[in-house]
From TrEMBL:
<dbReference type="GO" id="GO:0016020">
    <property type="term" value="C:membrane"/>
</dbReference>
<feature type="transmembrane region" description="Helical">
    <location>
        <begin position="224"/>
        <end position="244"/>
    </location>
</feature>
<keyword id="KW-0813">Transport</keyword>
<keyword id="KW-0249">Electron transport</keyword>
<feature type="transmembrane region" description="Helical">
    <location>
        <begin position="107"/>
        <end position="134"/>
    </location>
</feature>
<feature type="transmembrane region" description="Helical">
    <location>
        <begin position="79"/>
        <end position="100"/>
    </location>
</feature>
<keyword id="KW-0472">Membrane</keyword>
<dbReference type="InterPro" id="IPR006593">
    <property type="entry name" value="Cyt_b561/ferric_Rdtase_TM"/>
</dbReference>
<feature type="domain" description="Cytochrome b561">
    <location>
        <begin position="44"/>
        <end position="249"/>
    </location>
</feature>
<feature type="transmembrane region" description="Helical">
    <location>
        <begin position="154"/>
        <end position="176"/>
    </location>
</feature>
<feature type="signal peptide">
    <location>
        <begin position="1"/>
        <end position="24"/>
    </location>
</feature>
<protein>
    <recommendedName>
        <fullName>Cytochrome b561 domain-containing protein</fullName>
    </recommendedName>
</protein>
<feature type="transmembrane region" description="Helical">
    <location>
        <begin position="188"/>
        <end position="212"/>
    </location>
</feature>
<keyword id="KW-0812">Transmembrane</keyword>
<feature type="region of interest" description="Disordered">
    <location>
        <begin position="41"/>
        <end position="60"/>
    </location>
</feature>
<keyword id="KW-1133">Transmembrane helix</keyword>
<keyword id="KW-0732">Signal</keyword>
Amino acid sequence: MPLKPHLMLSNFITLTCLTTIILARGPGAGGGGGYNSGSNSGNYYNPNNPDDRNGNSENNSGLRGAPGFDVASASHYRYVHGILAALAMVLLFPIGSILLRVLPGKIGLYAHAVFQCLALCIYIAAVGLGIYLVSVVRIPGRSVTLLSNPNINYHPIIGLVLFGLFLIQPVLGVLHHLRFRKIQKRQIWSWLHLFNGRVGVTIGIINGALGLNLSNNASGYRKRVYYIVAAVVWVLWMVVAIVAELKRFRRRREEERKRGVKDLGAVVGGGMQYK
């Protein structure tokens, strides 16, 4: 059956929407997601504690917010942060890469660009919410942010490093496209773009799982959905990438073989003419 790009796009978009709804509205929805510490690390607020309505009152886990800190709002922001980051890392970034490999010609290129730009915008929003949460939550007695807590800070630090890497990804992509279109060969920009994207998204998916594990309020159902969807999408993404690289390798070998036969024919023909 011939490949129909519009049906492929429709199916991927449908998968994205359905998975997002499952993540957002599964059992126990309403308080999990994003980064928050578990019981062993020290939860920085407890939405179920009526005494934790603002940052001026210390909660039963030993952490509090800055002045003006609203626990209900922070809980909501944390939840939205997790949904946005998961949507970008688990779905949009990998799907954008897959579409580049499975859709023909410029259709695949445009779909790739649209999905990656959308994913980057969503991830920027997730990072913004994460920075806000880190800025308003304080460890009591020391008046320092969560970045000073080694039991928690690895999640936002990884997220910020990835944020910096993903900001340069569009530039690397444009340089790769312009150079490849001109010489039909991968350059340093190409390898940087591929490495930055594949490794960065993989680490981002893992960091999302770390964020869920830090959350007291993330239900086991939501964690399982994240793990399953992330694993399936990542494996599919890697399979498509490997198959595409194998096809590319075989195509180049075939082109080199044909070029060698053509050059040999020219040499033989020239020698016979000389005789």
